[in-house]
Each structure stands twice: as C-alpha cells, then as structure tokens.
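Hey L., structure's done. Input below.
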Amino acid sequence: AVLLLKTYHEIAEPIALLRKVREAMRSGARLGVIDKNGIGSDHGLNAAVVIREAKEAGFSLVEQHDFVKGDGMDYFLIFRAAAL
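Output:
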C-alpha cells in the first residue's frame, strides 16, 4: 500500500506520478490519499480532481471518507490498483 499524506496538491504532474506508482504496485494493491479540499482560499485540491486523475492513471476508487478532521475539509480517498 502507498499513502500520500497532505502532499498530492503539491505534485506538479500527478498523473505521471500515479502511473509510476501504479507500475510499482501489485494488482489490487491500495493507494490512499489524504489531503485538503482547497475550497476558497484554502490551500489544497478538490477531491473530485484527485479521483479523476487517479482513474486516468489506472486506479479505481473503493472508499471515500471525510472524517480525517472534524471540520470536514480533509478527505481520505482509497483506491485500488487495476491490473496492468
């Protein structure tokens, strides 16, 4: 499993990075992304963008949570690596 914690929004080429991560993982392995929604002036990235980019890189969303912090601003996405 791989966990990207509060860093995804800083990645310059996220799809390229996720493809490299996918190549290193077994089929069915999990990828977790915890980050901030980035609504308004908040520094972060909308979860929908991460989901779209992960799908393009060969992952499927299996779980989505917003319980990371009480303010609901952080999300926890769990993806499964597709077969290559």
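The radius of gyration is 12 Å. The longest strand covers residues 74-81.

-- N.
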